[in-house]
Amino acid sequence: MSNKKSWKELSYERKRVCLNISDEERSDMNNLCDNYRVFLDNGKTERECVIQTVAMAKEHGFVDMDTVQTLRPGDKVYSVNRNKNVLLAVIGSEDIEKGVNLVGAHIDSPRLDLKQNPLYESDGMALLKTHYYGGIKKYQWTAIPLAIHGVIYSEDGEKKEIVIGEDENDPVFCVTDLLPHLAQNQMTKPLKDAVEGESLNILFGGYELEDEDVKESVKYNILNMLYNKYGITERSFISAEFEIVPAFKAKNVGLDESFIGSYGQDDRVCAYTTIRAIFDINAPKKTAMAILVDKEEIGSTGNTGMKGGYFTMTLAEIIAKIKGSCDLLSLNRTITNSACLSSDVGAAFDPTYPDVSEKKNSAFAGAGMVLMKYTGARGKSESSDASAEFVQRITSMLDKNGVIWQTSELGKVDQGGGGTIAQYVAELNMDVIDCGVPVLSMHSPFEVTSKCDVYMAYRTYKAFYEE
């Protein structure tokens, strides 16, 4: 006689978060998301995200790692690298050589950057030349209000942090576009070519400052304004770092306010839930670590990207402050025995554009945190592919802690794809898997996430730290 199992026991079906959480959990979710919107508004660049993270870390008892000589279980420390990375650690009771639980997210987002010599005048207007950063649809950046965030050095060498366009009384900026009446040629081009990279010029001013010896009188007026307000000249732009981002704020989306819409949710939604999770950890068994990195959108390159040495160098310092010293063998053992959640976003299934996805293996907004065994493109190229053992470990942990989750891949097999920091973590010889929040309109100036998924991402990272 066969032992017949029910359909429910044998089959796998996604759950909807909103139907499976209590009123208390819903209240926690809304509170988390309200604070998350504030984080988005105040952190539109990597530098601003680091500043916010450090301020919140101090409020939760974390101290600068450079100020301590030894580390003991329960200690909470942070470390900052070049104002664009931050690592948080809560020291565990277990020997660190048995591994750490690391969650890694990135805090850079697609945007426009100013070129080194950006300011020019043409036909009675002052404009700024840009170079786009990361994967964008260029046409989405025309005819929307933009703000300027960044740092620049004055003539006397003083570093100045500048934000223009965020205050209600600030001016904003924009990239102009053709009117439909004159865009016949433009509209016959493929969408990717309709707006060229060199056309993403920022409208910066239009008043003239009269001087008979100056031909570029609008540019002259702008330069005078910049010098009088900030003490900078045109040469100052060479060393400056300015990012052009959408000027609007994060908003609730939908009549029921079930979604969040904002610039930069890839990947600040995972960054925020990661740090919120580690703030709520006090006495973990394994040392808990969170790292927020830069440059993921352009390949994790440089000394602030995940390919750089910051993580391993900081981990070695932590080991030394726990054990008194750190040799290569101790560092290697720690890394090999460690595990990482690469907290990055996934693509949410969009019912308006169903043809690019294979529905059975897609992530759905509101169905929980998304676990991605692999990313990559066309044959898993440039991907980390998590092992069966590690996937089983993580899914069992999620089920044990009542976290609602789902799985996905990034579109149909031959459609496209993308990468995360996971492959670079894996190259250190560490177990890693991608998991995060599904996003609609990813890489656009206004990305959309479900509050339910944001909450489940936080629950995932907290459960991982407490494992």
Which secondary structure elements does this structure contain, and how are they paired or packed?
Blueprint: H1 7-10, H2 23-42, H3 46-59, E1 63-64, E2 76-81, E3 85-90, E4 100-106, E5 111-122, E6 125-133, E7 146-153, E8 159-164, E9 174-175, E10 202-205, H4 217-230, E11 241-246, E12 251-253, E13 259-262, H5 265-279, E14 287-293, H6 310-323, H7 328-336, E15 339-343, E16 346-347, E17 369-372, E18 376-377, H8 388-400, E19 405-407, E20 417-418, H9 422-426, E21 431-436, E22 438-440, E23 447-450, H10 451-466
Parallel strand pairs: 1-2, 4-14, 4-15, 15-21, 16-22, 17-19
Antiparallel strand pairs: 2-3, 3-14, 5-6, 5-11, 6-10, 7-8, 7-11, 9-10, 12-13, 13-23, 17-21, 18-20, 22-23
Question: Based on helices, strands and strand pairing, what is the structural class?
Answer: alpha+beta
Radius of gyration: 24 Å
Strand order of the largest sheet: 1-2-3-14-4-15-21-17-19
Separation, N- and C-terminal Cα atoms: 41 Å
Instruction: Tell how many strands the DSSP assignment holds.
Output: 23
Can you describe what's shown?
With 467 residues, the protein is of the alpha+beta class. It has helices spanning 7-10, 23-42, 46-59, 217-230, 265-279, 310-323, 328-336, 388-400, 422-426, 451-466; strands spanning 63-64, 76-81, 85-90, 100-106, 111-122, 125-133, 146-153, 159-164, 174-175, 202-205, 241-246, 251-253, 259-262, 287-293, 339-343, 346-347, 369-372, 376-377, 405-407, 417-418, 431-436, 438-440, 447-450. The protein has a nine-stranded mixed β-sheet with strand order 1-2-3-14-4-15-21-17-19, sandwiched between helices. Strands 8-7-11-5-6-10-9 form a seven-stranded antiparallel β-sheet, with helices on one face. A five-stranded mixed β-sheet has the order 12-13-23-22-16. Strand 12 (251-253) and strand 13 form a beta hairpin. Helix 2 (23-42) crosses helix 10 and helix 5 (265-279) packs across helix 10 (451-466). The longest helix is centred in the first third of the chain and has 20 residues, at 23-42. The two termini are 41 Å apart.
